[in-house]
Design brief:
Elements: E1 6-10, E2 18-19, E3 23-24, E4 35-39, E5 42-45, E6 54-56, E7 70-72, E8 77-84, E9 96-100, E10 107-108, E11 117-123, E12 128-133
């Protein structure tokens, strides 16, 4: 299982903004490092091309009214994440529009248009990338 998105730093020196006031969508499981969005006042998994609200900081078990904590995706934030899929020719440094993998825990290197992520660097040995969220739900 991929490690998910991991906050690295902010261009402006700001600490990550942690949000704890939203509950998980009932009966949905969440994983630490998973990309999320807010729908009808609840945290839910972000789909591959959705604007991203943030990333869960801890696992959430299925149930009713489960509390969550996530790091808000903000301007200037950098994340390290695994990438999956066979990298498209356009999966290079500087690409914008990379989509989330279906699991929400990695970038999908095979699809580099229509997504929320831009790529600063790629580590092919570790199959990871340093990314920014360019299409944020709360931008």
């Amino acid at each position: 299982m991929p490690q998910g998105f991991r906050y690295v730093y902010n261009d402006y020196g700001k600490d990550p903004t942690r949000i704890t006031e939203f509950l998980m969508k009932d009966d949905e499981v969440g994983s630490a490092g998973e990309a999320i969005k807010i729908v009808s006042g609840r945290v839910t998994k972000a789909a591959p091309t959705d604007p991203i609200a943030g990333f869960l900081t801890a696992n959430v078990v299925a149930g009713t009214d489960k509390e969550t904590e996530f790091i808000l995706a903000r301007e200037g934030d950098w994340y390290d994440t695994p990438y999956s899929g066979s990298p498209a020719a356009g999966f290079v440094q500087g690409v914008t529009g990379v989509v989330l993998a279906a699991d929400g825990l990695s970038a999908n290197a095979a699809t580099v248009t229509g997504g929320a992520l831009s790529v600063l660097s790629i580590n092919t040995n570790k199959k990871t990338a340093r990314v920014k969220v360019k299409n944020r739900q709360f931008s």
